[in-house]
Structures are given as C-alpha cells and as structure tokens.
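re: the backbone from monday

yeah here it is again, tokenized this time
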C-alpha cells in the first residue's frame, strides 16, 4: 500500500509557506481529497498530526499499545513489577544481577503484538513515515536523557544489509528525534565492521560472543565522541547484545556517558533469573 503520509508531509511543507487563510483552505481541500488514515490499519481517521495532514493512530490501534510508564528501573528503564518491589535506589533486580554497560536506557513501548504492528513494517516494509510517530513517543519517554545529550548516534547496519534494506531505521529515528529536540545526529559515529547473522535463535552468551568486535567507532569521529554525552538510538532492545557492543565502542572512544533510547523493548531480557524464576526467551 502506498505510504500517503510521505506525500502528506511534502504537501504540508508546501502549504506551510502560504498565508494562514490559504493554508487552512488548502488543508481542508487536501483532507477531503485524501482523507487522513491511520498509519497502521489504514482506516480513515479524523485526527491529524501536527502537519494537519498525516493521520494519527486510530483509537483501536492505539489501544493495542503498551506504553512504558513509571515506575521504571532508574538504570535500564524496565517497568517495575509491583510484586518485585522497588529498591530504595530505584534499580531493578536485573540490573543488580548484571549491571548494564550503558548509564541509562529508556523505551517508549513494550515490544509486543501491538508495537510490532508499527515497528516491523517500519523496519522491513518501507513504512519510513512511522519514524516520526515513534520519535514523538521516544522524545517523551527519553526526555531526561535527551536534555543532557550532545549527540544522537544510531545503531549501525552493515553496509551490505544497508544496501538490501536501503535505509537504516535507527538513523531515521535519530533524524526525527533531532527535529523534535534539536539534539544533533552523528549518523556515522558507529560502524559495523563485520556482518552478523540474525541473533534471534542464539543464547545471550552466544549473542554477546557474536557481537564482540562487530561494531566500532569511526576513526574520523573519535575526536568529537571524546568526552561527549551520547544517546544511542535503536528501534527495539531485545537481548541488548547489539546495543552493548555500541556502548562498549563509544566508551572505548572516550565518551563521557552513553545512554540508550529505543522505540520499544522486551519486558525482561531472556535468561535472566529473577526472584528464582527464569523467563523463557521471547
Ligand atoms: Zn488503526
Ligand atoms: Zn534495570
């Protein structure tokens, strides 16, 4: 299906340059000619985004999303389970068992059936306009990290995968976040120097071994990365192996702090024993 939101964004930029009355009439005409639709299910919707043309998520799609809301772990941003109890330092049991490499991580959504309907088409089916939708929620959930950030750095794709996919979804999220917050983007701060297979079927230890040395900072960027406060941006955090490789490389380059902001995250990394239980891999 055509991605009308891209055409809507172009039309909106054209209309922005017009006097306000003409712009308002133009918006009504365009909304009548091309009714705004929900970017997920494509049902017509009366709600439009800030550009006045792109449709917002319809109520039924919105209801399927699980936003991550406080209380969350102060370190990894995982929603805190009331049964688990909240430690005085606000850090969850997972982070105490295995402290992450990053300073703080935050995500807007739980990675589940609802958010997959936005993220998988964004990642694999050219639904690039979903970047602005996700970035608005990420800017809310990661506000504290973004206010302190010097640079947004996307998780890189290997050049061969970038040629296949034609775009890096993490870079699109960075650009959309930068438009909202003014934090500059360093698109080529990190590079993948070795192609890795899909990590989905591997254990946590195998994933870490697979990612070891696969991501490095770009030599020409190291001077800017030194002593800088970095926010690494990705679409989903699952095992955290890829993100850990990014964080390790950035600290090795002398970054002052490295935080992580993703559109979604799994509730609990697999293979982490929590209060005597082991969660099954997701
Ligand atoms: Zn919908
Ligand atoms: Zn935690």
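seq for it, each position gets an aa:
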């Amino acid at each position: 299906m055509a991605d009308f939101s891209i055409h809507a964004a172009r039309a909106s930029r054209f209309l922005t340059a017009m006097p306000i009355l003409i712009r308002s009439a133009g918006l009504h005409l365009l909304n009548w000619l091309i009714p705004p639709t929900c970017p997920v299910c494509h049902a017509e919707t009366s709600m439009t985004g800030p550009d006045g043309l792109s449709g917002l998520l319809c109520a039924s799609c919105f209801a399927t999303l699980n936003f991550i809301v406080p209380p969350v772990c102060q370190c990894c941003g995982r929603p805190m389970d009331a049964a688990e109890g909240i430690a005085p330092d606000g850090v969850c049991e997972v982070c105490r068992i295995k402290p992450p490499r990053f300073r703080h991580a935050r995500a807007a959504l739980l990675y589940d059936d609802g958010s997959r309907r936005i993220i998988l088409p964004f990642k694999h089916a050219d639904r690039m306009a979903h970047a602005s939708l996700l970035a608005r929620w990420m800017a809310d959930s990661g506000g504290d990290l973004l206010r302190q950030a010097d640079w947004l750095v996307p998780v890189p794709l290997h050049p061969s995968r970038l040629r296949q996919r034609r775009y890096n979804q993490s870079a699109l999220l960075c650009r959309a976040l930068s438009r909202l917050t003014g934090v500059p983007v360093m698109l080529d701060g990190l590079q993948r120097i070795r192609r890795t297979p899909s990590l989905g079927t591997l254990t946590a230890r195998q994933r870490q071994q697979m990612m070891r040395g696969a991501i490095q900072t770009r030599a020409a960027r190291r001077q800017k990365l030194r002593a800088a406060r970095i926010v690494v941006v990705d679409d989903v955090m699952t095992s955290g192996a890829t993100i850990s490789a990014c964080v390790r490389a950035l600290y090795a380059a002398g970054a002052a702090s490295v935080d992580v902001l993703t559109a979604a995250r799994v509730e609990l990394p697999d293979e982490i024993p929590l209060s005597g239980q082991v969660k099954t891999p997701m």
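Residues 73, 75-76, 78, 91-92, 94-95 surround zinc ion (ligand 2) (CB under 6 Å). Residues 271-282 have pLDDT under 50 and may be disordered.
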